[in-house]
Amino acid sequence: MDDVEKAIVISFDESGAIDSELKSQAVNFCQQIKETPSICSLCIEKLCFCKLVQVQFWCLQTLHEVIRVKYGSMSLEEKNFVRKSVFSMACLEGIDDKMCPILESPAFIKNKLAQVLVTLIYFEYPLIWSSVFVDYLRHLNQGSVVIDMFSRLLNALDDELISMDYPRTPEEVAVAGRVKDAMRLQCVPQIVRAWYDIVSMYRNSDPEICATVLDCMRRYISWIDIGLIVNDAFIPLLFELILVDCLLEQLRAAAAGCVLAVVSKRMDALSKLSLLKSLQITRVFGLISDDNDSELVLGVAALITGYAVEVLECSKRVNLEDAKVVSMELLDEVLPSVFYVMQNCEMDAAFSIVQFLSGYVAAMKTLSSLQEKQMLHISQILEVIRTQICYDPMYRSNIDILDKIGMEEEDRMVEFRKDLFVLLRNVGRVAPEVTQIFIRNSLASAIASTSDRNVEEVEAALSLLYALGESMTDEAMRVGPGLLSELVTNLLSTRFPCHSNRLVALIYLETVTRYMKFIQENTQYIPLVLAAFLDERGIHHPNIYVSRRASYLFMRVVKMLKSKLVPFIETILQSLQDVVTRFTNMNFGSKEPAGSEDGAHIFESIGLLIGMEDVPLEKQSDYLSSLLTPLCQQVEAMLMNAKGLNLEDSPLKIASIQQIIMAINALSKGFSERLVTASRPAIGHMFKQVLSFIHRMVDTLGASVFPYLPKALEQLLAESEPKEMVGFLLLLNQLICKFSTLVHDILEEVFPTIADRVFSAIRRIADSSVEANTEEIRELQDLQKTLYTFLHVITMHDLSSIFLSPRSRGFLNSIMQLLLHTSCHHKDIVTRKACVQIFIRLIKDWCARPYGEEKVPGFQSFMVETFATNCCLYSVLDKSFEFGDANTKVMYEKFGDVFLSHFVSKGFPSAHCPQNLADQYCQKLKGGDIKALRSFYQTLIGNIRLQQNGSLVSR
C-alpha cells in the first residue's frame, strides 16, 4: 500500500485500535488529496489496481462528489476520461488494457459505481452522452455480472432522479422529465426486449439474475408505454413465472410485483377496466393458501389487494352501466381472496385495509339493494374488523395488570381501532340486520370458545356491540330494532368465564351503560343491570381499576334510570353496604386510607337514589341518617382528639377529613335545593348539622391543616369530569371565604392546574362533537358558571396576586378574554355584573394613581381601549341590558385623562353619541356625585338607543 491507500484505510477504521491523532491526520491527508487537480486520474488509477474495498469506496465517493460539485469547471478532456473509464468499469471492459476488478467487489461498491454513472447521466444525457443505454445493451451478452450491473444502474437512476417517492427540486424534476422523454424515444423498447430475453434465457439457469431484472423492470412500468409489457409475449411469461412451482420463490414474487405495477399504472377508467379483466387474475388466488410468511405469498397478496383497489376505483369512475356491472363482477371475484389476505397474511405497507373496505362500503350505499353475494362480503368485512381489533394474547398479562408494556399496547390499540369502528358504524348503516346477526354470533362464539384467545375474542365481540350502540340514535336505541333486544338480553344474562380479566370487565360495563336508553324503555331488564354492576362483575370486581370505573358508570346508570330504581333501593343499599362501611368506618391507624374516587361515586349514586321525592320522607330520613351518623361520629372523635394531634398522625387524619368531606359532598348532590329547603326542610336540617361539624373541624384544627391541604386538594383535583371539577371549585370557594389570604400559598400551588383543566373543558362547549350530548353541555356550562364565581371569590378576598404568579401568568390572557366576553355578551345579567366587578377590583389592585408605574404591563391600556368601550358602552346599548354606571368613575379615578380621552373621543363618536351629551358626561364624571353620574348615564344610553332605533352597535 502506498501512502494514499494507507491514509484511506486508517480514516475508515472503526476498531478503535488506531490512535485518534493518527486517524485525524489520515482524514486531513485524504481531504487534501481530494483538492488536487489530478484527483480524478488518481481515483481511476486506484480503482484499476487496488482491491481494498475502503480504497474503492473512497475513490468512487470522491468521483461522485467531484462530478456533482465541479462538473461545470472540469475540462472537456477530463470529462471524456472519467466518462470512458467509469463506463468501461461498469461494462467489464479494460482501461488501458487493464481489467478493473470493481464488478468483483461487494454490492455496496457496485451500487456506488452506479451512482457515479447516474451523476454523469444527470449532466450529459441525452445532449452529450446520448448512447449510454444503447451502448450498454451491447455488453449484456457478457453474462449475469454485466446484467446485474446494468440493473443496478437503472435502479440507481430511479432512486436518484426519476422516482417521485423522494423530494425533488424543480431542477431535478425537469432533468428527470428530459431523461425519461429521451429514453422513451431512443432505448426503452430495446431495454424491455433485453429484459424479456434475459428472463426467458436465464429463468432456469440463473433465476436470481432474472429476479433482479424483474425487480428493476417493476420500477419502470409506471412511465413506459404499457403496450411494451401488456402483450401476448410478456404477460403470459410473467404469469407462467408466478404459477410454476419449481421456480425460485424470489423470481415468482418478482414477477408478481411486475404484474402489480401493470395493474397500478395510471390510465383512463375504461381502459384500466379492460386491462384488469384481461389479466384473468383468478389464476393466482390459490397461491395465497400456502405458507403465509413466504416471499411469494406476500408478493401475490400485494398483487391481489392492489388489483382489488384498482377495480374498486374503476367502479367509482366509470359511468356506463355495462362497465359498472363488469367492475362489480370483478370485485365479487377478488373480494374473498382479499378478505383471506387481510386475515392471514402480512399486509403490504401501501395497502390500507380500512381505506379499501370503507370505499367498498361506500359503493354499496349507492346500490338500491344488496345481492346475496354482497351480503356475504359484508359479513366478511365484519369478520375482518373483528380479527383486526383483537388484542394479541402475548400482551394479556401486561394489559391485565396494566404495567408499562400493557399501557403502551392498550394506547396503541385504542388509536388503531378508531378507524375500524368508524368502518363498523358505516357497515351497520348499509346492512343493519347483517351487522347485528354477526355481532350476536361473535358473542356466542366467543363465549363458547375454550381457546387460548378466549379473553381477546370476548373483548372484541363486546367492543363490536359497544361500537354498534355508538352508531344508533336515541330513538333507535329506545325502539330496539332488529335483534337489539336479543343482543342486550344476551349481554345482561351472560356470565363470561373470563370476566375476571380487566379489559373484558371494563368493556362489558361500558357496553351495558351504552344501552341504557334501551333499558329505560324496557324496565324488565333493570334487575339484570343492577346485578351486573353490584356483583363481582362490577363494583365488587377484584381489580381496582374495574371497581372504580364500575362505581362511576353505576352513578351514570342511576342518573339515567332515576325513579325507575325506587323499588330497588333496599336491594341496592344492601349490596353496597360493605363499600359504604369501608368509607364510614375507616381505620385511622391504617397507613393506607381507602381510595376516594370510587367512594365519591358510590355516595353520589346513593344520594341520587335516596334524594328523590319519590322516596317517602320517613325512609329518606332513615337512609340519610344511617349514612351521616357514622361520618359525624368520626368528626366528633377527631375534634375531641385534635389537641393531641402529633406530626406522625396528622397526614392520616387529614386524609380521613378529605374522605369525609368528599363523602358528604357527593351524597348531597342527589338532594335538590327545593327538596332540602321547601318540600322537606327536615332533610336540609340534617345536612346543616353535618356542615356545622365540618366548620368546627376546620376551626379546631386551624392552620395545622394547611401543610396537608395541597396534597388533599391534589387528589381531589384528579377528578377530571366537569361535575367533579365544579365540586372542587365550590370547596375552594369555601376555604377562601373562611381563611381569606391565609390560603394564598395553597391556592398559588393548585391554580395553574385548575386553570388548565377548566379552560380545556369549557372550550368543548363550542365543539360540534358535544352538540348531541345535552347532559355534557349542561355540565360544562355549570363548570363555566362556577369558574366565574371562583374568580370573583379570589379577587374579592385580596388574592388577585395569584393570577400574576410565574406559573399562573400564562393563563392571564385567557382569563381576561373570557371575563371580557362574558361582561359584554353573557345572557345572564348577574353573571355579567360579577365579571365587571372582577375587573373593577383588579383595577384597584393592579393600578396606581394616574401615570403611576404599571404593576401588570398592558393591563391599563386593555381596560381603557378594550374593556371600557366594549363593556361600558357598546354592550349596554342592548335594550335588554339595565345597568347603572359607577365603573367608568373607578377607571377615571385610576387612569385619569388617558381614560377620558379615549372613552369620549373614540367610544362615543363610534356609538353616534351627540357631542353635547358627551360633554355633559365628562362633567358628571369629573364631579363627585355617583348618584348623579348613574342617573345621567342611564339617560345618555337611552338617548343613544333611541337614535339607533334599538339596534346594537356591532363590535
Characteristic key phrases:
two-stranded antiparallel ribbon, 70% helix, 0% strand, single chain, mainly alpha, 955 residues, disordered C terminus
Briefly characterize the structure.
The protein has 955 residues and is an all-alpha fold.
What can you see in these coordinates?
70% of the residues lie in helices and 0% in strands. The protein is extended. The chain has 955 residues and is mainly α. A hairpin with a 2-residue loop joins strand 1 and strand 2. Helix 14 runs antiparallel to helix 15 and helix 18 runs antiparallel to helix 20. It has a two-stranded antiparallel sheet. The C terminus is likely disordered.
List the helices and strands and how they pair.
Blueprint: H1 3-11, H2 20-34, H3 39-49, H4 53-70, H5 76-90, E1 94-95, E2 98-99, H6 107-124, H7 132-137, H8 144-162, H9 170-186, H10 188-202, H11 207-220, H12 234-243, H13 249-264, H14 269-278, H15 295-317, H16 321-344, H17 353-365, H18 372-389, H19 396-401, H20 404-430, H21 432-448, H22 454-470, H23 474-479, H24 484-493, H25 502-514, H26 516-521, H27 526-534, H28 544-561, H29 569-575, H30 577-584, H31 596-610, H32 617-641, H33 650-668, H34 673-679, H35 681-701, H36 709-717, H37 722-739, H38 744-762, H39 774-796, H40 812-825, H41 829-846, H42 859-874, H43 887-895, H44 897-910, H45 915-926, H46 930-947
Antiparallel strand pairs: 1-2
Helix pairs in contact: 1-2, 3-4, 3-5, 4-6, 5-6, 6-8, 8-11, 10-11, 11-13, 12-13, 13-15, 14-15, 14-16, 15-16, 15-17, 16-18, 17-20, 18-20, 20-21, 20-22, 21-22, 22-25, 25-28, 28-31, 31-33, 32-33, 32-35, 34-35, 36-38, 37-39, 39-41, 40-41, 41-42, 41-43, 42-43, 42-44, 44-45, 45-46
